[in-house]
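2024-03-11 09:14:02 INFO queue: dequeued item Aldehyde dehydrogenase, len=445
2024-03-11 09:14:02 INFO validating residues
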Amino acid sequence: MTQYAAPGQPGSVVAYRPRYDHFIGGDHVAPVTGEYVENVTPVTGEVFTEVARGTDADRARALHAASGAAQAWGNTTARERATVLGEVADRIEEHATELAVAETWDNGKPVREALVADVPMLIELFRQYAAVVRAEVGEVEQLGRDTCDYRSFQPLGVVHERVSWTFPLLNACRVLAPALAAGNAVVLEPALQTPASVHVLVDVIADLLPPGVVNVVTGSDDHPATSGRCPNIFFSDVTARRDGFLDKALDGFAMFAANQGEIATAPSRALLQTAVYEEFLHLATERTQALELGDPLDTDTMVGAVVSLAQRDRVLAYVERGKAEGARLVTGGEADGHYVQPTIFEGDHRSSVFTDDVLGPVVSVTRFDDRDDALKIANEAAAQLGAGIWCRDIALAHTVGQDLRAERVWVNNYHPYPATTAALAEYRRVKHLVVSYSDRGQGYF
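2024-03-11 09:14:37 INFO prediction written
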């Protein structure tokens, strides 16, 4: 066990500034209105810093600074940008513990998650995108005997992105890494609930980037986060043996409580096959009750603080609604300050306790009879970012996975945020240069 000192206390690895201005054009810039907002840590419920209140005028200044920097940054070679991204990754790695504690203090997540998942993924994102842009080349298509289409990549120019509070640093870097790799300048707007950790990140890496390439405007309106109420399907063969697979499946069930359930792909709908429903629910309840809820700065803590009191109240209102609708509360359902117990409901899959978004440590359990029944229930939600399947029969898992209406399906694992290079295409355009090298013929017909 490691117990990290709270920011502001002797021995803390993080030193927050008393006040954060906007970061625009490479400098800290006071807000146009002169207004600041108190930033509260969910760990203790206390104010630990304040941030500039952003307005349209502040955004305009940031966008202007980004526009001025975008052309020069976009004109750098892919190799030059890759080198800088590699340096950013190295700097984040040097400050890994500082950033992990900063994220925990701002968001309430257990520091163990930030240390073993969030911050390592920041490093991997920058290194991965650096490797991709360094290695890739354009394409040439022969359109005719003496005509070619040369295809290359160009940046969009300026990327303006709002960063949700669910994973402040990871969500910020899931924009920064591909956007910078593609040659864009960026304006980030962290959510009002969690602006400070992004400022800590900028303080760590700002000197590696030209002024204006990364800008931060803080303290704007709350950024809503959405959940897909992702289904997590457990087939009867998971309990065939008391072995490591069953243990992993129980961990997969308990994933609903990771990051306090504040994950867009949280597996907050659990479907258990009727043949093993009671047995598996009993084991899953024991696993859930064993989760350590407590001080997020303690590495033994598994479930930390909900990001804000407003979000806590939303979760508790959902719990009361579930009770009123007749869903059975299996465990949890209570809170102490920002801390909400991991909660299990069981009930009808058509009830609101099963279908509504909550973004809290709450899972709703229902039963299914067979493959077709599982698919029918799982696919009732119109939009699902993810889904999980737990099954020893890999052939069955493959077919079910193909038929689930989800963007990403995990089979016998549930790791919500894999690094990906797919986002690179969102931050650049393809340039076509169609060239004829013949000195004969006509220009059109």
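2024-03-11 09:14:37 INFO annotate: The mean pLDDT is 93.
2024-03-11 09:14:38 INFO item closed
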